[in-house]
Design goal:
Blueprint lengths: L3 H18 L7 H8 L3 H7 L3 H23 L6 H17 L11 H9 L4 H27 L9 H22 L5 H13 L3 H9 L9
Helix pairs in contact: 1-2, 1-4, 1-6, 4-5, 4-7, 5-7, 5-9, 6-7, 7-8, 8-9
Length: 216
């Protein structure tokens, strides 16, 4: 028998899995309860609505994934290694069988945004997670800029948004065609262009492994 806390967590994790596999509106409370092995009474004991469940589920997912983003921008890495860490995290999480939904801000946000925008709490959750990820991108870009690795003096916040938007599109493209094989090369090429990374650093990023990047 599960206790109350275990039941709540099972509902959260089941909801994340089902919504990522299809979409927010296609997954109903009945199916979530069936897959989680709980009653509707237990569901409504913990959550007032499916929208609230989605919000809490994405918060749990982000809290578990945020340390990976924190490590990317850690001062333990050089700015170029931080960029390599980001590329590695994105590509590895989508090229490992069964791990496609582990990247916060990709599958779980897109699953909610595609048809969950009519629920304010769903839109709020997607916006909050997107902003958190963009802030991490902004920190990484500022570090590259401070190290003199960029050709132009671009606004880190704007480039962070553009980077986030491109990653979202790239991930969705891979899901549509069920093919992530070209993700690393496409991602690296576009990031270098968006950041306007200087040629010597672009060459290092694309031609040789960086010393500490594998430690992520």
């Amino acid at each position: 028998m599960r206790n109350s806390a275990e039941t709540r967590e099972e509902l959260l994790r089941t909801a994340m899995t089902l919504i990522c596999q299809s979409s927010y509106h296609q997954v109903g409370v009945n199916e979530i309860c069936r897959q989680a092995g709980v009653t509707k009474g237990a569901f409504y004991h913990h959550f007032q609505s499916k929208a609230e469940l989605y919000y809490q589920a994405t918060q749990l997912h982000w809290n578990e994934t945020k340390p990976d983003f924190d490590r990317i921008t850690s001062s333990d890495y050089t700015p170029l290694e931080q960029l390599q860490n980001l590329i590695d995290m994105i590509t590895e999480s989508h090229q490992t069988e069964g791990a496609e939904d582990e990247l916060a801000g990709c599958s779980i946000i897109s699953a909610g945004c595609l048809d969950g925008g009519s629920d304010d709490i769903v839109a709020q959750c997607s916006q909050e997670m997107a902003l958190e990820i963009q802030q991490h991108h902004g920190v990484m870009i500022c570090n590259l800029k401070s190290a003199g690795m960029l050709n132009s003096d671009r606004d880190p916040d704007q480039i962070g948004r553009l980077l986030y938007q491109y990653i979202q599109g790239l991930v969705n493209y891979g899901r549509v065609f069920n093919d992530h094989s070209g993700m690393r090369s496409d991602l690296t090429e576009m990031i270098c262009s968006l950041l306007d990374l200087k040629p010597e650093y672009r060459y290092r990023l694309t031609s040789e492994p960086l010393a500490q990047a594998s430690g992520l």
